[in-house]
Amino acid sequence: MSDIALIRKIEALSMNAQPALKTVQQDGWILRFANGYTKRANSINPLYPSCEELDRKIEACEQMYRKQHLPAVYKLTAAAFPGELDRSLHAKGYDYVGETSVQILSLSQIGEKPKAYVEICPRQDRKWFDHYCRWNHVCEADQQTLKQMFDNIATETCYMLITDKDGIPCACGLGVLEDEYIGLFDIVTKKKERKQGYGTQLIQHLLHWGKENGAAFAYLQVVRENKPALALYTKLGFEEMYTYWYRVKS
């Protein structure tokens, strides 16, 4: 598989794993809407070849996002089509923000499953959701949108909590399995429990769950500015496959 084809595959998997509330297909571009909760779920993904004239297409997308009372946001990779899109957006006043590393790991490399106190649910439940929202500071106004997004995931999921020996939750995360890939999302550790190994235990158990259920590879996305997370994923054997970034109308 070529680099471009693999980027498109991972991007498609990640969109399925974190579905928007509304999706519009427009001449090879995928427009996503989720009430403004996260740029990723409210962005234009120009993944596939298109035929329409570029300036006209950009204006049409801006109009569609204005109707939703949202800013026009593009999520770009080296596979974005057409190749001059990033330069065109820059010339139109779109700012470059949020550079993110997409990393991959062959599950043949993972070691033994570590000992940990683990709670697993195949669907989101109130306990997992409440802890995630509290630890990740999801405001009440966004919680219904987030819940709908989780409910819209059509592929196999693993909502996981790591607890201490007394059963008190310390870290949580989500694994989404599709086509031999497990995507890791929403990884967060309770603030006062950080640097005690709970995040590492969580990721390792999600990786083993994926392997036990047919995955051969894992992928994740981490903002370049998140140095502690980057160090952790490097330690676990993840390697950068590509980057993505956003262009946001200033």
Written description of the protein model:
With 250 residues, the protein is of the alpha+beta class. Helices cover 33% and strands 32% of the residues. The protein has seven helices and eleven strands. The strands form two sheets. Strands 4-11-5-10-9-8-7-6 form an eight-stranded mixed β-sheet, with helices on both faces. Helix 6 links the parallel strand 9 (181-189) and strand 10 (217-223). The longest helix is centred in the first third of the chain and has 15 residues, at 3-17. It is globular.
Structural class: alpha+beta
Number of strands: 11
The sequence of SSEs as H and E is HEEEHEHEEHHEEEHEHE
Low-confidence stretches: none
Rounded to the nearest angstrom, the distance between the terminal CA atoms is: 37 Å
Q: What order do the strands of the largest sheet run in, or round the barrel if closed?
A: 4-11-5-10-9-8-7-6
Largest sheet composition: 8 strands, mixed
Q: Determine Rg (CA atoms, Å).
A: 19 Å
Strand composition percent: 25-35%
